[in-house]
Design a protein that fits this description.
This protein is mainly α. It has nine helices and no strands. The protein has two domains: 79 residues, Orthogonal Bundle (Rna Polymerase Sigma Factor, Chain: A), CATH 1.10.1740; 78 residues, Arc Repressor Mutant, subunit A (Orthogonal Bundle), CATH 1.10.10. Helix 2 packs across helix 4, helix 6 crosses helix 9 and helix 8 packs across helix 9. The radius of gyration is 20 Å and the shape is elongated.
């Protein structure tokens, strides 16, 4: 990005950050997620600087982009909530400390239920190190296939822990 476009984006950021943050927060009800939505909105603005500059109303363009990013985060949250099983459902009566990831027995149990690459995929998403869309790109698969793969891994892990 050239210096002129960089200065333009910086000026928009300084001028409109608060309004964009308030918009994202109203949707997400979470400070870190609202900040992330605004940041992601500006990343899109940097990538599509021509569209932004040719827009009749740059603030409206930014609001639309940030709203879209916030709704995407909200949808990702909703989908993740439906995919993840609570610890109480996953391993009834087991204390969280008993499922510490450093526990050799649990790690071996999980490795016996799924492949190491499947376990790595599951843990990357479960720990929040990656998102479903990012993982779909990494795996070279469509997003719905990534969700389905995650569900199958989760179900096999749940079964293995339930049999424990």
């Amino acid at each position: 990005m050239d210096a002129e476009n960089s200065a333009y984006i910086e000026q928009l950021y300084r001028t409109h950050y608060r309004a964009l943050y308030v918009l994202a927060y109203a949707i997400l009800q979470d400070r870190p997620s609202a900040e992330a939505a605004v940041q992601e909105g500006f990343v899109v603005a940097c990538r599509k600087i021509g569209d932004l500059r040719h827009s009749e109303d740059p603030l409206r363009w930014l609001k639309s982009t940030v709203r879209h990013r916030a709704l995407h985060i909200l949808e990702e949250r909703r989908r993740t909530a439906t995919l993840f099983t609570s610890l109480a459902d996953l391993a009834p009566g087991v204390e969280p400390a008993a499922l510490d990831s450093t526990d050799f027995e649990v790690v071996e149990l999980c490795k016996g239920a799924v492949s190491e690459s499947e376990l790595a995929l599951f843990l990357r998403i479960a720990k929040g190190e990656t998102t479903f869309p990012e993982e779909a790109v990494r795996q070279g698969i469509q997003l719905p296939a990534c969700y389905k793969r995650f569900e199958r891994i989760r179900d096999r892990l749940q079964k293995a822990l339930g049999e424990r």
